[in-house]
Design a protein that fits this description.
By secondary structure, the chain is of the alpha+beta class. Helix content is 50%, strand content 25%. Strands 1, 2, 3, 4 and 5 form a five-stranded antiparallel beta sheet that branches. Helix 3 packs antiparallel against helix 4. The chain is elongated and about 90 Å long. 17% of the residues are buried.
Protein backbone atom coordinates (compact mmCIF):
# COMPACT_ATOMS: atom_id res chain seq x y z
CA UNK A 1 0.00 0.00 0.00
CA UNK A 2 2.83 2.36 0.90
CA UNK A 3 4.64 1.61 -2.36
CA UNK A 4 1.49 2.21 -4.38
CA UNK A 5 0.97 5.58 -2.69
CA UNK A 6 4.57 6.62 -3.39
CA UNK A 7 4.28 5.53 -7.04
CA UNK A 8 1.01 7.46 -7.47
CA UNK A 9 2.50 10.53 -5.77
CA UNK A 10 5.61 10.33 -7.99
CA UNK A 11 3.50 10.01 -11.15
CA UNK A 12 1.32 12.95 -10.06
CA UNK A 13 4.41 15.05 -9.34
CA UNK A 14 5.93 14.23 -12.75
CA UNK A 15 2.61 15.10 -14.42
CA UNK A 16 2.50 18.49 -12.63
CA UNK A 17 6.11 19.26 -13.62
CA UNK A 18 5.47 18.28 -17.26
CA UNK A 19 2.23 20.25 -17.33
CA UNK A 20 3.94 23.34 -15.89
CA UNK A 21 6.75 23.07 -18.42
CA UNK A 22 4.23 22.77 -21.27
CA UNK A 23 2.22 25.83 -20.13
CA UNK A 24 5.32 28.02 -19.69
CA UNK A 25 6.81 26.88 -23.01
CA UNK A 26 3.50 27.39 -24.86
CA UNK A 27 3.10 30.96 -23.51
CA UNK A 28 6.67 31.75 -24.54
CA UNK A 29 6.06 30.44 -28.08
CA UNK A 30 2.86 32.48 -28.42
CA UNK A 31 4.62 35.64 -27.21
CA UNK A 32 7.44 35.11 -29.73
CA UNK A 33 4.95 34.51 -32.55
CA UNK A 34 3.06 37.67 -31.62
CA UNK A 35 6.29 39.71 -31.74
CA UNK A 36 7.22 38.28 -35.13
CA UNK A 37 3.85 39.25 -36.60
CA UNK A 38 4.35 42.99 -35.99
CA UNK A 39 5.24 45.04 -39.05
CA UNK A 40 7.89 47.77 -38.93
CA UNK A 41 5.08 50.35 -38.85
CA UNK A 42 3.53 48.59 -35.85
CA UNK A 43 6.89 48.26 -34.07
CA UNK A 44 7.42 52.01 -34.41
CA UNK A 45 3.89 53.09 -33.55
CA UNK A 46 3.74 50.88 -30.45
CA UNK A 47 7.09 52.13 -29.13
CA UNK A 48 6.48 54.12 -25.93
CA UNK A 49 8.69 57.18 -26.43
CA UNK A 50 7.63 58.61 -23.07
CA UNK A 51 9.35 55.68 -21.34
CA UNK A 52 11.94 54.65 -23.94
CA UNK A 53 13.08 57.83 -25.66
CA UNK A 54 16.32 57.43 -27.68
CA UNK A 55 19.33 58.34 -25.53
CA UNK A 56 21.63 59.95 -28.10
CA UNK A 57 21.22 62.35 -31.04
CA UNK A 58 22.29 59.55 -33.37
CA UNK A 59 19.60 57.20 -32.01
CA UNK A 60 16.97 59.93 -32.49
CA UNK A 61 17.95 60.32 -36.16
CA UNK A 62 18.02 56.53 -36.63
CA UNK A 63 14.47 56.26 -35.28
CA UNK A 64 13.33 59.19 -37.42
CA UNK A 65 14.88 57.47 -40.46
CA UNK A 66 12.90 54.32 -39.67
CA UNK A 67 9.76 56.45 -39.66
CA UNK A 68 10.75 58.10 -42.95
CA UNK A 69 11.38 54.69 -44.49
CA UNK A 70 7.85 53.66 -43.46
CA UNK A 71 6.39 56.84 -44.98
CA UNK A 72 7.99 56.22 -48.35
CA UNK A 73 8.12 52.48 -48.68
CA UNK A 74 5.52 50.63 -46.65
CA UNK A 75 1.80 50.04 -46.67
CA UNK A 76 -0.12 51.53 -43.77
CA UNK A 77 -3.63 52.57 -42.84
CA UNK A 78 -4.68 56.15 -42.16
CA UNK A 79 -4.67 55.36 -38.43
CA UNK A 80 -1.12 54.02 -38.69
CA UNK A 81 -0.07 57.16 -40.59
CA UNK A 82 -1.53 59.22 -37.73
CA UNK A 83 0.46 57.16 -35.23
CA UNK A 84 3.65 57.45 -37.32
CA UNK A 85 3.31 61.24 -37.53
CA UNK A 86 2.64 61.37 -33.78
CA UNK A 87 5.87 59.46 -33.16
CA UNK A 88 7.81 61.73 -35.54
CA UNK A 89 6.45 64.85 -33.87
CA UNK A 90 7.61 63.51 -30.48
CA UNK A 91 11.15 63.55 -31.88
CA UNK A 92 10.82 67.21 -32.95
CA UNK A 93 11.98 70.15 -30.87
CA UNK A 94 9.10 72.39 -29.72
CA UNK A 95 10.21 75.01 -32.24
CA UNK A 96 10.08 72.59 -35.19
CA UNK A 97 6.80 71.06 -33.98
CA UNK A 98 5.24 74.54 -33.72
CA UNK A 99 6.18 75.19 -37.36
CA UNK A 100 4.78 71.80 -38.42
CA UNK A 101 1.32 71.25 -36.91
CA UNK A 102 0.22 67.62 -37.12
CA UNK A 103 -2.30 68.11 -39.94
CA UNK A 104 0.12 70.15 -42.05
CA UNK A 105 2.95 67.69 -41.42
CA UNK A 106 0.71 64.72 -42.26
CA UNK A 107 -0.45 66.36 -45.51
CA UNK A 108 3.15 67.10 -46.46
CA UNK A 109 4.23 63.52 -45.78
CA UNK A 110 1.25 62.13 -47.72
CA UNK A 111 1.95 64.39 -50.72
CA UNK A 112 5.68 63.56 -50.71
CA UNK A 113 5.02 59.82 -50.40
CA UNK A 114 2.54 59.95 -53.28
CA UNK A 115 5.01 61.92 -55.39
CA UNK A 116 7.71 59.31 -54.75
CA UNK A 117 5.26 56.53 -55.62
CA UNK A 118 4.15 58.28 -58.83
CA UNK A 119 7.78 58.72 -59.91
CA UNK A 120 8.66 55.13 -59.02
CA UNK A 121 11.20 56.25 -56.42
CA UNK A 122 11.81 54.07 -53.38
CA UNK A 123 13.95 54.67 -50.33
CA UNK A 124 16.21 51.64 -50.43
CA UNK A 125 18.40 52.35 -47.41
CA UNK A 126 19.16 54.98 -44.80
CA UNK A 127 22.33 55.52 -42.81
CA UNK A 128 23.51 57.65 -39.92
CA UNK A 129 27.06 58.82 -39.24
CA UNK A 130 29.19 57.11 -36.61
CA UNK A 131 28.94 58.27 -33.00
CA UNK A 132 32.43 59.79 -33.29
CA UNK A 133 31.24 61.96 -36.19
CA UNK A 134 28.42 63.63 -34.25
CA UNK A 135 29.43 67.24 -33.59
CA UNK A 136 28.42 68.86 -30.30
CA UNK A 137 28.35 72.60 -29.61
CA UNK A 138 26.79 74.94 -27.09
CA UNK A 139 24.82 77.88 -28.48
CA UNK A 140 23.22 80.47 -26.17
CA UNK A 141 23.30 77.95 -23.33
CA UNK A 142 21.64 75.18 -25.39
CA UNK A 143 23.41 71.93 -26.17
CA UNK A 144 23.29 71.30 -29.92
CA UNK A 145 24.29 68.20 -31.92
CA UNK A 146 24.87 67.84 -35.66
CA UNK A 147 24.18 64.41 -37.15
CA UNK A 148 24.68 63.51 -40.81
CA UNK A 149 22.43 60.97 -42.51
CA UNK A 150 22.38 59.39 -45.95
CA UNK A 151 19.51 58.19 -48.10
CA UNK A 152 20.00 55.65 -50.88
CA UNK A 153 17.19 56.08 -53.43
CA UNK A 154 16.18 53.73 -56.22
CA UNK A 155 14.39 55.02 -59.30
CA UNK A 156 13.78 52.32 -61.87
CA UNK A 157 17.17 50.70 -62.40
CA UNK A 158 19.24 53.69 -61.28
CA UNK A 159 20.35 54.66 -57.79
CA UNK A 160 21.24 57.94 -56.15
CA UNK A 161 22.44 58.97 -52.72
CA UNK A 162 21.51 62.15 -50.90
CA UNK A 163 22.70 63.51 -47.58
CA UNK A 164 21.05 65.52 -44.85
CA UNK A 165 22.34 67.15 -41.72
CA UNK A 166 20.12 67.05 -38.65
CA UNK A 167 20.46 69.67 -35.95
CA UNK A 168 19.24 68.48 -32.56
CA UNK A 169 18.82 70.42 -29.34
CA UNK A 170 18.76 68.94 -25.87
CA UNK A 171 15.58 69.83 -23.97
CA UNK A 172 15.18 70.45 -20.23
CA UNK A 173 14.62 66.74 -19.59
CA UNK A 174 17.90 65.89 -21.34
CA UNK A 175 16.22 64.44 -24.45
CA UNK A 176 17.64 65.27 -27.86
CA UNK A 177 15.00 66.70 -30.22
CA UNK A 178 15.25 67.48 -33.94
CA UNK A 179 15.44 71.25 -34.34
CA UNK A 180 15.90 71.31 -38.13
CA UNK A 181 17.38 69.33 -41.00
CA UNK A 182 18.59 70.23 -44.46
CA UNK A 183 20.15 68.69 -47.53
CA UNK A 184 23.95 68.83 -47.76
CA UNK A 185 26.51 68.02 -50.43
CA UNK A 186 28.51 64.81 -50.21
CA UNK A 187 32.08 65.08 -48.99
CA UNK A 188 34.64 62.80 -47.43
CA UNK A 189 33.19 63.45 -43.96
CA UNK A 190 29.68 62.49 -45.04
CA UNK A 191 30.08 58.73 -45.23
CA UNK A 192 27.48 57.06 -43.04
CA UNK A 193 26.86 53.48 -42.00
Amino acid sequence: MKKTGIVILTIALIAVICGSFYVVNDKSKRANQKEKVLTEVQRITTKDLDKNYPQTPREVVKLYNRIVKCYYGMQYSDEELDALTDQALKLFDDELAANNPKDTYKQSVTADAQSYKDQGVTLAQTGVCDSNDVKYVTDNGSKIAYVKASYFMKEGSSYSKTYQEYVLRQDKQGCWRILTFYKIAADSDTETE
